[in-house]
Design brief:
single chain; alpha+beta; Cytidine Deaminase, domain 2; 5-stranded mixed sheet; 5 strands; globular; disordered N terminus
Length: 160
Amino acid sequence: MIISDRPFLRQRSKVWNDEAILNEAAAILRKRLRRLGTLSDPTTATDFLKMRLAGLEQEVFYVLYLDTKHRIIEAEPAFTGTIDSAEVHPRVIVRRALELNAAALICAHNHPSGDPTASLSDHALTNKLKEALGLVDIRLLDHFVVTAEAFTSLAAMGRV
């Protein structure tokens, strides 16, 4: 058991490991993002996404589901892959967005290689997601490629 003067580390029945600490940090960031209201710039979202995705050894596709004012309804990993790819199914994301009554979403995935450059398959996936979500009037606001040092916004590139 880890004893600490920090309240989020002080728990009697739980041993804190790296994953538990990251989950707690993500919960704190999620609360802060909710308090901030809308996601008005890419930096706000990428700070959260970098913290969740940057250090992972396998590729993870993450989705922020947003309401009509772009406040976070839910933030969760949707797919996990290998060291250089993750198979993403747009219909699963559309179904989840409908379940949550989301009006928009931001998606992201990490590149464990450390290179934030969006691949051709990243661009193709963005197009497929945008098209699938558009059929049910849900907006894809951005697709980020995240590393520990940097990120790429496909919206900033004009691809969303």
